[in-house]
Amino acid sequence: MLTIYHKTAFMLGRYRTYGVRRLLKLLFLFIFTSSLCLVNLLLPLGQGRYELATAQVTHKSLVSSHFFDVPVNASQLLQQGNQKYERGDLQAAIADWERAIAYYRQGNHWLNVGQILLKQAQAYNSLGKPEKAIIFSESALQIARACNDNSLEAAALGSRGEAHRLQGDYQQAIIDLKSSIEIAQNIHNSDYYDFALNQLGSTYISLALINYNRASSALESGDNDEAELFTKQAWEYDLKALEYLNNSLNIARKKQDKLREVHLLLNSILPAYRVKKSNLAITKLQLALQLLERLPNSRQKVYAAIELAQLVQSLPSGTTSSLNECSVSQGEPQALDLLAQAISISQSSNYQRPLSFALGYLAHIYECRQNYQQALNITRQAQQAAKQKLNAQDSLYLWQWQAGRILKAQNRLVEAIAAYEQAIATFDNIPNPIVIHNSDLQINHRYAIEKIYRELIALKLNLENVEINKPGNTYNSKENLNSVLKTLDALKIRELQNYLHQDSSVRTLQQVNLDLNINKDTAIFWSIIQDERTAIIVYLPNREIKFKWIQLDSQSLKDEINKFRIGLEKRSDIIYHRGQAQRLYDWIVRAFENDLESLRIKTLVFIPDGLFHSVPMAALHDGKQFLIQKYAIATASSLSLTPPLPTNPKKLRVLAVGLTKDAIVDDQKYQALINVKAEINQVMEIIPDGKQLLDEDFTRDRLYAEIRQGVYSIIHIATHGEFSFVPEDTFLVTGNNGKLSVSDLYTMVHNIPSSHNSVDLLVLTACETARGDNHANLGLASIAVLAGVKSSLASIWAVNDAATVKLVTKFYEYWHNFGLSKAEALQKAQQELIALGKKYAHPYYWAPFVLSGNWL
After folding, report:
1. What average pLDDT does this structure show over 622-644?
2. 238 burial class (0-12, 13-18, 19+ CB within 10 angstroms)?
């Protein structure tokens, strides 16, 4: 393993039937009576066409189909597919296997069909399409059970378990893999037993890494107890991973499979270090180094040598070295020898993709030594090797990124920017399957591309400081800053895609066009957090772009924001202490006060970065008044997600749902929201054209059934919400102790047919966003906008008080009845709550409500 962070996959919603129809859907129904087997088989014959085959097959023919009457064409196609799979031409292999299945089906060789289906499932797993792999595995599983073939059943469960692991459904993966192990043990099949053991080890490593990241997030937010619990859970998962990997290692040793032994040793080293078994980790590393020398030359040996080079540099820290970080290591000479060996084997065998990685990692060592010219020369060799093969494109962008870093270190900023932009362009042109299939070195591509965007933005901003001060300068600052904003917008889209693990199917405009999108009375604020400082960039309606730096490192900024949030939520203070709110105002807004006043700005739209998502900008204070008392305020995840266009709210229908009772979800109790019924009633009174669902009627299935009709332009949800940096732990509480996951919400909204009305406004009240986690702060509201909702109004902490009813009621009145923009309607509602005085003047009651998306 080369990274501590491990990819988690976006779980497809239960209701994505549209996607299933597009898949190669296979359904096998077998009915056995004594010696008679009636098989109904649905198999693809072509693009979008299926044929139902019905055949009577005796049990004898099922058993003997392995050995007799196998069509020659089927055997040839099977062999061709195997050869293409070994060469990495997976789509062609799948096509050959599909044709072979047609022959075997005609001859009623159903067990052969099942075995080939598993080959296809494996190919789809390798292509990064686990949802298809699951369908093929399940079809093979039905054949196995109908034919009472335990061997095929164990293999199918193992294949499906691997697909669930790749999809991020780790609990289902564990169930399948443990079932596969049990069957394999009973029939004494060491191959399937070994495969499931290894997959379980990988599954528990993924779970461990998720919990280490949760612990890190808890520490950032100052919750040490929670961090300790997450760390303890991560340790337990790492220990389980070591147990399964060690069992698999024993099998590899019995079989004298040296290559597999090396891989298992490599996978065990970091988990051992993380649970403080440093001696065990060092022993495994030394064994892997010794075994590597005995392996015959192969691609697998090259990748093992590269991974070992990474590990010997990382010890004894217990974390692998990163391509964008440098660390002093006594293992560098050994790493150089291993990389030299990898380069030699790759060159002699014409392994272009492994060669590109070996050269790239070697160049990184020279980069860390600050021998920049040598590093650049070798990096360009790595690029050249990557260009030789289509399936090496996922390494090419890494070396373009590396070249950009080296050029930056040489102060060749313009060339560095060009290299970074090349890296992004290359990444965007890589089919997602290639990125996942070619994950020999477990590189976190999603993390890498976000890092590239951020470093590119920093480079362009630094260019402002350098170029503006040059004598005789003809540098176009406005053009550069426009480029910064477009790159920022692309980064925001990428962050949302990465959070959901969705690399496509996102509803965006072709390109953000600031001049067309922004009203004359609106200013747009961007923030971009860097390690040492934070940039605030403002686009004004006169087309000027201005920016300033907050000279504060990222950790100090997080601390200040957390203090601000804690103060806002401390309603026990009758008089709100404004010091923290004024400090943030000084950093974010004060430098632009004169511009805002001279241009008569009425609305401020913030596109926040990281922890700024958790800052209710309405509560910033200039020393005299809150920001909301002067400006209407909205946020946006990205300007290219939703164009700011006015709507006619009087023609819209509402679906209002909520929870008024106690609920228990995942062993956590949620108290009854006593004001929800009044809130829903007020909404229905203002917008009578609609429907309400409360408590037992408010279920995931019922909500989906209503939304899919496409007749509701307003969806109002009043219930508890939980947020996390992983989508699976981000959900809304529904009736009957159920929950609506972020995946469900995304799917429901995204699947509304284009011929139906889109959702103009999603309102989420009584939700609560965790402090301190950048991903959690994206929130359900942002995800909804990504899915196609035009605007969302959501609370970032729960306010179980009549204040919510007052604010929501006023918002709907000003927007629906009086025709104000959504941002202005929210401003008026918040101002009226402040004017009530007493406790309602405290930001706790009105500040958490944030409008996101289309603010008009």
Report:
1. 90
2. buried
